[in-house]
Queue: 2 jobs
Job 1
Amino acid sequence: MPPEFPQIPALAKSRTGIDGLDAITRGGLPTSRTTLIKGGPGSGKTVMALQALRYGALEEEEPGIFVAFEEYASAIRTNALGFGWSLEAMEDRLFIFDAQPTNDLLQSGEFDLVGMLAGLEAKLRAMGGKRIVFDALDIVLKLLPDPASVRREVYRLHHWLLEHELTAIITLKTSGPNVWFHGEASLEFMEFMVDCSIHLKHETVDGVSQRILQVMKYRGTGFTENAASFLIGPNGLELAAPRSIYADERPVANERMSSGIPRLDSMLGGGYHRGASVLITGFPGTAKSTLCGTFAQASCEKGERTLFISFDSETNELVRNLTSVNIHLVPYKEQGLLKLLSARALTESAENHLLNIKRAVREHQATCLIVDPISALAKSSAKGLAHGVVERLVDWIKAAGLTLVCTSLLDEAGQQLEGTPLQISTIADTWIHLNYTVHAGERNRALSIIKSRGTGHSNQVRELILHNEGVTLADAYTAGGEVLMGTLRWEKEREETIAAQRAELLDQQRDAALEHEEAELKARLQVMQLELEAKRAEREANRTARSQVSEEKNSDQEQRAKLRGLDQL
Amino acid sequence: MSQETAIRYQVFVAGNSPNSCQALHNLRLFCEEHLPDRHQIEVIDVFQEPERAMEESVLLTPLTIKVSPPPILKIIGSLSDRAPLFQTLESSN
């Protein structure tokens, strides 16, 4: 008989309510097991643990205890209010245990954690607790005299947690002013002990704050191993969920959205696709923002809720500047259809911008999003990270079915002439490039469509004309293989106009002459008609006279024959 | 040292765990030697009265508290080292 192994139930997971984290861990933290959260000071350990505990108590009917070694319960409650979490109202489901060791504690001989565990056990039983958080366990471990006792007490705690089948989170500091006095290595064994280990990092890259979370270990399950960025937002932790390779079953729309420039729409075969991401690249001053403005106006006109995020200028300036080219956004803003936001690239990390953009989209329930310029994100983070952010933004926009129009600024001396700093051109569906052409002493704006997935599109470079009556694309004149723009185009147009006028004049003259001839002919025809009729009448009269004569003649003959008594033939 | 003032101790113990038994034993010996008839010892078993342990935020056991006269002094451990106990005496003068 084969040996019997104990039946181990399938690994269950407990949701944390932190969306991105539940995605990374594919369902949450291990149920009835211990999770370790390690991080430096201010890395978000306490918030994350508290958020998961609160979610369990509120949504999963799993009350819990928060053992606060570092902060007073009152301070934790106050801080939680900052995230909109009212812990006082749920005291029966989420209990905060004040466990700060007092500094005046004298030590004498051996001691252990049994006292605390006994108290917690009673409390858990009374409230039906399922989850527990030990926040900053290192604080209490620091009281222990040597690494051996630390080890003993940690294993005592671990055993106690398993025995009571608690879904536990233990947070530990890794660096900073409170470095573990026995040396960090003495707590390293906890990594091996727990079933799940998560590291949080808060660092500054080029002066911009960057928070990173990474799952280092998760026994018995697959998980996303890459680091994920997160931020501590107004409602707690927000984690950028990784791009999933399975998220490809999206409905694709054939509907077109107007770009706001009819001729551009016709170049694109009807406009932008709904749900597409449109990238507009160009040097400074090539009217990228203006193209954003025309799209915003056209979308609002159709009642689409539109969000316009400008990294370049204040929203009021933007509106004023667009008014000069006959784009009027104020009424839509007042109706609430259009929301304008201005942001400064450097104030936040790219990750924060992404999460802020997502939040703004949700709040506004936008169907169209404009980000001008998206390349600003590159300024706010290390390039590699920023690219990931833009890619995720495009991905998220697609999943949400939004139409995205974003711009990317190129340096005047940009070495990549028609590339984009963030390489978004590869993931954008439509790529419009704006350029200056310098010719015959003029600088004119040229627009070309470099690519547009799923649409036939004109391959010709057109001139973009900004006018106080609006924005238009001019007809392309080609001469000697070159597209004519500015004055050259105007001259060509003028030439053609004069030629056309001359031709028309000639035509009119010719027409008049013909008309004259026709009238003359008609008159002559009339005269001749009259003559003809006269002739006919004359002829008729003639014929009548002749037949009378012949009748008379016949009757005369008969008469004569009678008289003469001629024989009948 | 006034003869009238009795020193009151509370000892939080974790059942019959070795450290707890040791602490009680050491405290009693100390009191008999230095505070004959001038001491009170209250023993609280955290397994029997966990609520009291929570109220006092007892993390580590055994915990010996000199409750009165003030100031309050807290000593964790099996009391194998008598120095902190002498401190409770001195602070009561």
Job 2
Amino acid sequence: MPCLRFDLRRQFPLYLDDAASPRIVQRIERHLLDCGACRAHLVRLRSARTLLGELPVLGAPPFEQVMARTPEPAPRRPFIAPWLLRHLAADALIASVMFLLFTLFYTHAAVARNRPFDPSSFRAIGISDIAKTDDPHVVVSGVVSELDGNFSEGCRRFRLTDPRNPKAFVVCEILDGDPLHAPKAGERVRVWGVSRYDSNPDHEWFEIHPVLKVEVVR
Amino acid sequence: MRSAATDELRDLYDQYAAKILTLARYVLGSPSAAEDAVQSVFLKAYQHREGFRGQADARTWLWRIAVNHCQDELRRRKRVEEVPLDEVLGWANDDQSPELRHRVKQIDEIVARAILQLSPKLRTVVVLRYVEELSYQEIAAVLRCSVGTVSSRLARALSALEAILRPIVRS
């Protein structure tokens, strides 16, 4: 079992070299009586110490020979410390990857923005069933029952009612600045846009927001 | 260089050059680096002799210059050069038989290489204590640390060396 008396073990070299104080010697010897692990450790340290003690002290060359030598020039320190260079390289790599990702994302977003509007990819759904779809791109048909020309909320809004179920409706909103023309009340229209639920306590209805296309059905 | 100054430097050299060469050789691991170290240490000692006079023990002061030089050198080059130690360990006792001389020399080479596997701090303290035979108090003064720290570093160094040299110890 390993011994955890590191406080004593760090004094072992002093003990081996007869340089420890009598108090330390006493403490170490008392501990060694009961601790086989430390006795073995001490033997190992003594072996290593014996080998080291046999290493020769080398002979110096003559004074004139050494002082006549031109010392090797110290290698020039690089302008930027190697550790800093490593950090900069890592930073540059991260910045490059981020730039690449941003460029890809931006290009993809730009392509998506410029993609022509394709009405055929919108899902046709009845106004009464709008709550049943999670597809955001929908096309709904109905009768314009109410027209709101108030631009205070930044959009032109009209209500589209299901002719078969007058209680079912969606609110359609044309964004301000969009060149689309709002339909007239009573017209039967088909509306393409993004469906969502407006959870505002005053609203709590399904919306087509924004309206992307309005087509009057004859 | 004035002759009095040269004489002063030569006196210092005669007393300590071999010891400093030994320290540098075992700590740096290369004969040429060790000779450069001796030259640099004595030039530095000569240049700063005015600042030294009347202060600490000359021996401690010179050891400190040598230790600092070796630490700087090790910091400068990250890895120790692998140089055959027998270039310097040509010291065998003539009274020994050729086989025994060869065996002893082999062991010394292995031990010297094992020292190079220690960290610079442990390497320095091991050489100062067991090769240069400085006392614990002298080592503490050179390294500007406590005797307890010297002993603690020696304990770690001996333990690591014993693990490296275990096959030799057993044989």
